[in-house]
């Protein structure tokens, strides 16, 4: 009976030693993992302070602001394009009126009107050509 108790105590002691060794091994692995996580946390904090990493909320706020600015720029461009087209129509109407005036007044005294109309026509053609070249290079 005593020898059975001794064997059981030895087995229990061996089991405790095995558990202790396993716990020590797990503790060492946990310490290594903690050290790795501390290094990663320090690197991440350094990256945040250096501006390499930013918070998602900041990026979302910046994106929303940029989208709003883009929408405003598009509205302004559409308005300026509409204004430019309206001005071009007005210039065309004035050019037509100038030629009509030149046709009705064809006396030698008013030859300057014809010269002005021709020069204006040349300037308009040159402006269109320049605009077409710019739009072809920008596209």
Uncertain stretches? none
Count, helices = 3
Residue share in helix: over 70%
- The number of E-state strands comes to 0
SS strand fraction: under 5%
Characterize the biggest β-sheet. Answer: none
Summarize model confidence as the mean pLDDT. 85
Secondary-structure-derived class? mainly alpha
Radius of gyration over C-alpha positions, nearest whole angstrom: 43 Å
- Which sequence of SSEs, written as H and E, runs from N to C? HHH
Overall shape: rod-shaped
**Ends distance:** 100 Å
Task: List the topology elements.
Layout (H helix, E strand, L loop, with lengths): L1 H49 L5 H49 L6 H28 L1
Helix pairs in contact: 2-3
What does the model show?
Helices cover 91% and strands 0% of the residues. The chain is rod-shaped and about 140 Å long. The model has no long low-confidence stretch (mean pLDDT 85). With 139 residues, it is mainly α. The N and C termini lie far apart (100 Å). It has three helices and no strands. Helix 2 runs antiparallel to helix 3 (111-138).
Key features of this structure:
139 residues, mainly alpha, 0% strand
Short overview:
This protein has three helices and no strands. The protein is an all-alpha fold.
């Amino acid at each position: 009976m005593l020898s059975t108790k001794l064997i059981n105590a030895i087995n229990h002691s061996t089991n405790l030693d095995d558990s202790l060794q396993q716990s020590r091994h797990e503790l060492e692995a946990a310490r290594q993992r903690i050290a790795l996580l501390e290094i990663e946390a320090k690197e991440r904090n350094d990256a945040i302070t250096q501006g390499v990493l930013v918070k998602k909320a900041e990026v979302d706020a910046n994106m929303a602001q940029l989208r709003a600015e883009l929408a405003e720029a598009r509205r302004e461009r559409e308005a300026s394009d509409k204004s430019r087209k309206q001005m071009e129509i007005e210039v065309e109407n004035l050019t037509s009126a100038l030629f009509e005036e030149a046709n009705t007044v064809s006396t030698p005294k008013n030859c300057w009107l014809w010269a002005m109309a021709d020069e204006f026509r040349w300037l308009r053609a040159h402006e269109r050509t320049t605009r077409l070249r710019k739009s072809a290079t920008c596209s």
